[in-house]
Amino acid sequence: MSRRASILGLAVAAALLALGLQSWGLAQALVERHVVAGIEKRVGLKVTSLKRAEIALLPLPRISLSGVTFASPDGALSGTALRLRARARLLSLVGGQLDFDRVDLIGPEVDIVVPNEPESYANWVAPPLAYLSALKGETQLVISSGSLMARSGNTILTTLRDVNLVVEERDAAGPVAFAGSFTWRGETTKVNLLWPVTGERARVALALSSNLMSLRLNGSRSGAQGVTTGQVEFTAPSLPDALAWIGPRPRIATLVRRVELTAEAQLAGDNISLSNVIAKLDGDQLEGALKLDGGGGARRVLSGTLAGADFDLGRLIRQGGDQQPPGTGEAGETPLEFDSWTAHDVDLRISLDAARLGPARLADLAAQLMVRKGRFEASVLRASAYGGSARARLLATSVPTGAEVKVQLGLDRVNLAQAGSDLPDLLGSLTGFASGQIALDGVGDSFEQVVGSLTGRVTANLRQGEFKGASFAELLRRAERPVAARDWRQGKTSFETAQVTALAHRGVLTLTDAQMAGSGYALSLSGSADLGRRWLELAGMLSATNGPARAAFEVRGPFTDAVFTPTLDAVVHPTGSTSQLPR
């Protein structure tokens, strides 16, 4: 070949290369005939309009459509895109056919039509999954900087923003597979999904993660029954925050913070059944079975049975109180928020080998939580407590003035010496065996109103114990011989029996019968306890059983720091003369 021919060939090749790299505007009718039809075939979206079309042949054949409007054949999906790019397969072009191995939607805004009722997450994801599953095979579909809106009529139910997804190429029998990220309700979320199209018990996998929660599912799906089964893992650093992100936060969820859960799951629509559950709630482990019934509406039902070796019940109470919002009524009032506590139905039964309630310890505990619309009930059906037993019940029902609250507590032969080792501030100076019952009713729309309206009865019986901080024997001896008596505040007093009966009315407990008896003395009490103010006003008379000595006294002050003080004219000598009590 001559030098001139070589130069001419290189010039022609360079010209062809330049032409191939150049984007060329084409007539819209020609694009719709040859290009748009090929895109529609591969991605199942019908292009209804476009502003401009361009084609470049080198280095790879590619088509670019600007200002595109599109819709699925059934109308479930529709939208616009700033640009649609399609990369043609070179070999198919050589063979005289137009096919694509990748389609990019840049800046799309996609509307997804979902049924209005029932409103559920399953309804939101069903249309796009149905669209992808119905394709006989699609090319790789890439969505960049898009948004997806679930819409019912003119109402936008939810929106995914900053959507960046890659839907992998598949054949007719292959599973739908996509991965990427989006922003939902202000949280960046990563997603990875494998969804079967054909076959029974075909593999399904889902991974969803954000800063608020992580969810993984690995299992199989029965296409005929529409049931998915498999291993599920769920983690949330704060369950209330995660649920508030997903949807309305149930008030009862504030009882728990960090949750780590694994289980065998069965999912059918909005109904979820979990077996072999291993749940760590703030570090305490429970095992059992749970079921969440979506109910086809906003009100959901959680039921199940759980068991554990050790659990901190006191933490649940503290965390529920920590989330209590500021009062909206009188200054200092704490609203009950009864409607939010009963927003969802709950039926949970819990068995614990050991439980903690603050510093107190219980064993062999069986508890139940029952929540219905307008009704909240939490019960300790049985529990071993320091050699004895305990039971408790809290029942609240909706009334026009707020909530009617019933509190019941029963103790039987609780060893106070053992309890005092865990509760030194409350029982450290008291021993004996205690039995008793509390039954109080109140009504109101705040904690303070309920306490201020309490009515009912309190009874307590103690046997064979003693208390420190007061020596009744020395106090009586001082009544007889003040000079010879020692300081009564440094001693202790044993008792054979002690019993208290009190009636509550409008938040005030009034003693109707309060007596204590021991070796050489008898004591009687009268007075009241204001539950709202947490204040004691008691008066007593201490009498010697083997002589005429008597001493009157009063107990006055807050519940946790009341002062025991003999009155000024309290000491009565055997002769009947009185003298001032030495301090």
| Alpha-carbon distance between the two ends | 131 Å
Low-confidence parts: 15-28, 325-331, 568-583
Residue share in helix: 10-25%
Radius of gyration based on Cα positions = 38 Å
Overall strand count: 32
Question: What's the overall average pLDDT, rounded?
Answer: 83
Shape: elongated
Describe the overall structure.
The chain is α+β, with helices and mostly antiparallel strands. Among the domains are: 17-167, no CATH class; 456-579. Helix content is 17%, strand content 54%. The protein is built from eleven helices and 32 strands. The chain has a 32-stranded mixed sheet that branches. Strand 13 (214-222) and strand 14 (227-236) form a beta hairpin. The longest helix has 19 residues, at 3-21. It starts with a helix and ends with a strand. The model is unreliable at 15-28, 325-331 and 568-583 (pLDDT under 50).
Quick recap of the structure?
With 583 residues, this protein is of the alpha+beta class. Helices cover 17% and strands 54% of the residues.
Please tag this protein with its features:
elongated; single chain
SSE blueprint:
Blueprint: H1 3-21, E1 24-25, H2 28-43, E2 46-49, E3 52-56, E4 62-71, E5 77-88, H3 90-94, E6 100-106, E7 109-113, H4 121-134, E8 140-152, E9 155-167, E10 176-184, E11 187-195, E12 200-209, E13 214-222, E14 227-236, H5 239-246, E15 259-268, E16 271-281, E17 284-293, E18 301-312, H6 313-322, H7 338-341, E19 345-357, E20 360-372, E21 375-385, E22 388-399, E23 402-415, H8 416-422, H9 424-427, E24 433-444, H10 447-452, E25 455-468, H11 472-480, E26 492-505, E27 508-518, E28 521-530, E29 535-544, E30 550-558, E31 563-572, E32 578-579
Parallel strand pairs: 6-8, 7-8, 18-19
Antiparallel strand pairs: 1-3, 2-4, 3-4, 4-5, 5-6, 5-7, 8-9, 9-10, 10-11, 11-12, 12-13, 13-14, 14-15, 15-16, 16-17, 17-18, 19-20, 20-21, 21-22, 22-23, 23-24, 24-25, 25-26, 26-27, 27-28, 28-29, 29-30, 30-31, 31-32
